[in-house]
Each structure stands twice: as C-alpha cells, then as structure tokens.
Amino acid sequence: VACSEPSNKPEEKTVSSIAVSPSEASLMVGEDLNYGDFEITVTYSDKSEEKVKMTAAMISEDDKQRLTQVGAYDVTVNCMGKTAVLKVTVNAKEMNVTAEDVSAAKSFLR
Prior knowledge:
The protein is α+β, with helices and mostly antiparallel strands. It is built from two helices and six strands. It has helices at 61-66, 99-109, and strands at 15-21, 24-28, 39-44, 49-53, 71-79, 82-91. A hairpin with a 2-residue loop joins strand 5 (71-79) and strand 6.
C-alpha cells in the first residue's frame, strides 16, 4: 500500500471576511464621507487580521450619489473581494433663524 507524501507547501491564506469600523456614520447634506475615518479589518483563513484604511475606491459611484440626499442608507464597502455594510444617515442642514433675522426679512419685504 502506497502512502502519499505530505505536502510541505504551506497553505495559501485567503480573505475570509471584512468588517468596517465604525459601522455607522452620520453627515449633513453637502458633506462628504471622510473615508480616512473608517478602518477595514480584513480577516484571513488562518485567523490572522490586517487593518487597512477605507478609501473612496471601495464605495460604488451609485452609493456615493445616494449620499447626496437626505436619508438612511446601507453603503456597500468592497475590499479584497469581500463586502461589508456601512450604515450612513444623511441629515438635512439645520437652519438657525433668529428673531432678528425675521425682523430684517419683514423690513426687507415691505
């Protein structure tokens, strides 16, 4: 009975999953997502991990376009062939109107 010789070739590690940290973001209409604020944890098949900064290239143009409107969005982050979700809330800009502003507007409209 013949035995096969054990392979001394190390098993090549592959990417098992990715995770985005923080996993949620909030911005105002007109603001851009600051990609450098997010870190991607890449987990490999051998359980080792690597941290990489998120870049604009990891987000689709369609998702970037959606972030120009008020709403809550699940943005897909693509890294090393895997995906993760970043939850982004885009809020309307707040307008601070004072009594002086109202008075000035009324005088202007007269």
